[in-house]
Amino acid sequence: MSFAPLDTSASLPLADTEIASLRQRLHNARHLLVLTGAGASAESGVPTFRDAQTGYWAQFSPEEMASEAGFLAHPQRVWDWYQYRRDLVRQVMPNAGHVALAQWQARHSGRMTLVTQNVDGLHQRAGSTPVLCLHGNLMDNRWLLPPKPCCDVRFTEGDAPPQCPGCGNYLRPAVVWFGEALPHAELQQAQDAAKACDLMLVIGTSGHVYPAAGLAHIAARGGAHVVVINPEPTALDSVADRCWRLPSAQILPALLA
Ligand code: APR
């Protein structure tokens, strides 16, 4: 495995003292909570969720492609969209930001809770463990309806999407769609970490999607120092103690080295 190279020659538009001050906070932190969103994978070449809807796919809204209603209305179209994204993710690699997070997590066992909204598996491929995946995993499937005894993934028919030959139940991507509940255990662990942390990094997320974005509010209410890392303004800037307008793969290696 190889990773996107880190350009250490690039000068960061941040004062050294600013980086040093956050590095000191990291050093002193009892517990660090990291929340990542689509932007954390942007420098790997994975388009953010909305940016991904280019070309043919631009004519459909995110809700049409990522909801049970959208799937039931057009199962093949939605399945094809996920197959397209799966093919794309297979061709990319974790970037220097993913790697820096994984290495810090390994060096500081038990001091970081890593929570992601991303379904691309790049944190795991960079070596992070554990990773709390709030929105599921792109590469996995599950049954659309609660499986009956006839539902066996080894014996499906059709492939776009595969169906149970007995009852017609569909396989669907094991991701959380609009309107669906997040996995209870992962969300609970993430919220517990938000209450307990004294430092939180909010990386590459627009901060518009809840309950994930709510983690930053919980952390701030509990007195944690909250840092947003994102080249663009976000909906969570108002709860942050500092906002670094930088791409994550550029700054995380310097911060977490
Ligand atoms: N580094 C850091 N942030 C970046 C970078 C980068 N290199 N490039 C883009 N960004 C930021 C954008 O500025 C934007 O704020 O990443 C964010 C991506 O926003 P969205 O595409 O809305 O992704 P996210 O906030 O993760 O969406 C959350 O909503 O669409 C659903 O289920 C989907 O998990 C997703 C959730």
Could you please describe the fold and organization of this structure?
It contains nine helices and eight strands. The protein has 257 residues and is of the alpha/beta class. It folds into two domains: 14-45 and 93-135 and 181-257, Rossmann fold (3-Layer(aba) Sandwich), CATH 3.40.50.1220; 47-91 and 138-175, 2-Layer Sandwich (SIR2/SIRT2 'Small Domain'). The strands form two sheets. The chain has a six-stranded parallel β-sheet, covered by helices on one side. The chain has a two-stranded antiparallel sheet with strand order 4-5. Helix 6 links the parallel strand 2 (112-116) and strand 3 (132-133). It is elongated and about 65 Å long. Residues 1-11 have low confidence and may be disordered.
- CATH fold type of the largest domain: Rossmann fold
When the domains are counted, the total is: 2
The strand count comes to 8
CATH architecture label of the largest domain: 3-Layer(aba) Sandwich
Give the CATH level 1 class of the largest domain: Alpha Beta
> Strand order across the biggest sheet?
3-2-1-6-7-8
Distance between the termini: 20 Å
What binds here, in terms of ligands, is: adenosine-5-diphosphoribose
Largest sheet: 6 strands, parallel
Which percent range describes the beta-strand content? Answer: 5-15%
Radius of gyration over C-alpha positions, nearest whole angstrom: 19 Å
Shape: elongated
Given helix and strand content, the structural type is: alpha/beta
